[in-house]
Amino acid sequence: MSDVRDEPRVLLDPTGERELATRPRLPRLESLEGRTVGLLDISKARGDLFLDRLESHLRDRGANVKRYRKPTFTKPAPRDLRQQIAVECDAMVEALAD
Amino acid sequence: MLLAMDASRPPLPDGLVAIVKRDCPTCVLVAPVLVDLAGRTGLTVYTQDDPTFPDEVASVDDTDLSVSYHHDIEAVPTLLRVEGGREVERAVGWHRGDWEALTREDSLGPELPEWRPGCGSRSVDPDLVPKLRARFESGTLHARRVALAPLEDEIEAAYQRGWSDGLPLVPPTEERVLAMLSGTTRKPDEVVAVVPPDLVECSVEKVAINAVMAGCAPEYLPVVLACVEAACTDTFNMHGLLATTMPTAPVIVVNGPIRRRIGMNSGMNVFGQGNRANATIGRALQLVVRNVGGGRPGEVDRATFGNPGKLSFCFAEDEEGSPWTPLSTDLGAQPGVDTVTLFPGEAPRSIVDQLARDPESLARTLAANLRTLHHPKLVMAFDVLLAIGPEHVRVFREAGWSKAQLVERLHALLQIPGVELVRGADGMAEGLPEAVKDATLPKFRPGGILVVHCGGGAGLFSAMIGGWVTGEMGSQPVLQEIRP
């Protein structure tokens, strides 16, 4: 008995077919001294408290700190903001909150 | 008839061309005429079922129906005149006068009756069309092909690849996807929307693939396309709605004549199971977000509870039974236009009032229930979609209340003293800052109560579907016209 079908069955991929190729991560910073770290507040309650504390720790270690804020936590950061951060910073911390 | 030239279409030889099949009595009847014409002027005969037919003419084998399909042969016999590779005249069935005019010959088949209708071409046999479409048109599909192993079960394969919402999917074969695409006039490669959260461009074809998997019929596809367009607007903010911990998701209300054309349910068990269009249109939208947009629970979808409507929450408004304007025209659509309205909603909650016979009493019942939406002490943060059932709408109709009157009364009843809303009031920590103590605040923003009429004819009930964070920071209802 043969239950192997004679024609190969082909389905159409329902996904976004995003490339699976991985993008390499940027190398870790050797030191924070003199480097610029961006802190992104996503506009959730008390995210600023967390970032204030982080900022003081980072400054203690010699880093420059720049603060950014998303207009609303419910939507992705606007493209312009993402580009601004990419241009201005060597590293970035995004704060979730609640 | 001039047809667009198509590289995949087999060319026809110049001169007279006949397409026939032995299984057709009219073709058998005209076989002597074909033999006669072959002798007089030359004639190319294509046969769909038996290459030895007609017996005395060397016919061309079209049993794969390639010529018949590509040249839109609907009945046999079909007689064509071809000049310079193009069809310039066509006669269908047997009609002596037409055949003589087309061939410029006379005395054709003198022993035959004047006229006989033809038979259906095999290329339009409903059982064969899906296969033929897949064979001849799959080149128009651009999605990656996923070949299954010989013993792999199709349903299990879809689960394993992560495509499913938990229920079995209809396997998206080329045949089914091409059949689905016949439900729209839009081109398969047209971009419908950029789907969050991955912000992937989504073609009509990708929507069709997911609609197949959801179980849609082709005639639902325009509705699904409109849903995808509406969901992916900045106003609706599908990304945020997906990512929120709240139990909300797209709720789809369909208005316009298309509701009845595709057999949607607006009556008994309107939010429940049992109607194919209701159950699959919402599911198709969710599958597009899952598969094309990459929005999956536990990943970007962070819902604490979710709700069963995230499988599909789609229904039609009962416009015929309503004394009121439909939701679509409330939101700005022209009457009679097919639309979807997407509302960012939670599961429906029942409102019972079996005793109210006057509109003021019933409005108070509705307001008391609306007050509790998400929390009795939270205001102006969420919209509501209020579904008034037929037995409740009767109370308003008999009293002559318009929908606008009801909504105005509900807003008036839902002006709440700040002292009841502040943190700590009623022994509940949840609430608003102390600063609003002396103010009076509305439960809903202006325009935040949307009313739709639906449900079964028996039961003095209505239902409320709570919204998500409203306004520009959250999600707002979106009206979208359904295009063919």
The low-pLDDT segments of chain B are 1-5
Oligomer: heterodimer
Largest interface summary: A-B, 18 and 46 residues
Number of helices of chain A: 2
Q: Mean pLDDT of chain A, nearest integer? A: 84
Radius of gyration of chain A: 22 Å
Q: Which regions of chain A contain 5 or more consecutive residues with pLDDT less than 50?
A: 1-5
How would you characterize this protein structure?
The complex is a heterodimer of chains A (98) and B (484). In chain A, 24% of the residues lie in helices and 20% in strands. A three-stranded parallel beta sheet of chain A has the order 3-2-4, sandwiched between helices. The N and C termini of chain A lie far apart (63 Å). Chain A contains two helices and four strands. Chain A has helices at residues 47-60, 79-88; strands at 10-12, 36-41, 64-69, 91-95. Chain A has a domain at 36-95. By secondary structure, chain A is of the alpha/beta class. Chain B folds into two domains: 15-125, Glutaredoxin (3-Layer(aba) Sandwich); 156-481, no CATH class. Chain B is of the alpha+beta class and 484 residues long. In chain B, strands 13, 14, 15, 16, 19, 20 and 21 form a seven-stranded mixed beta sheet that branches.
Kindly summarize this structure in a few lines.
The complex is a heterodimer of chains A (98) and B (484). Chain A has 98 residues and is α/β, with parallel strands linked by helices.
Which SSEs are present, and which pair or pack?
The complex is a heterodimer of chains A (98) and B (484).
Chain A: E1 10-12, E2 36-41, H1 47-60, E3 64-69, H2 79-88, E4 91-95
Parallel strand pairs in A: 2-3, 2-4
Chain B: E1 15-20, H1 25-40, E2 44-47, E3 60-61, H2 66-70, E4 75-76, E5 78-83, E6 86-92, E7 94-95, H3 96-103, E8 115-116, E9 119-120, H4 129-137, E10 145-147, H5 154-160, H6 174-181, E11 191-195, E12 200-203, H7 204-214, H8 221-231, H9 238-243, E13 249-255, H10 258-261, H11 276-292, E14 314-316, H12 327-330, E15 339-352, H13 359-371, E16 382-388, H14 390-399, H15 403-413, E17 415-417, E18 440-442, E19 449-453, E20 461-469, E21 478-481
Helix pairs in contact in B: 4-6, 6-7, 7-8, 7-11, 8-11, 13-15
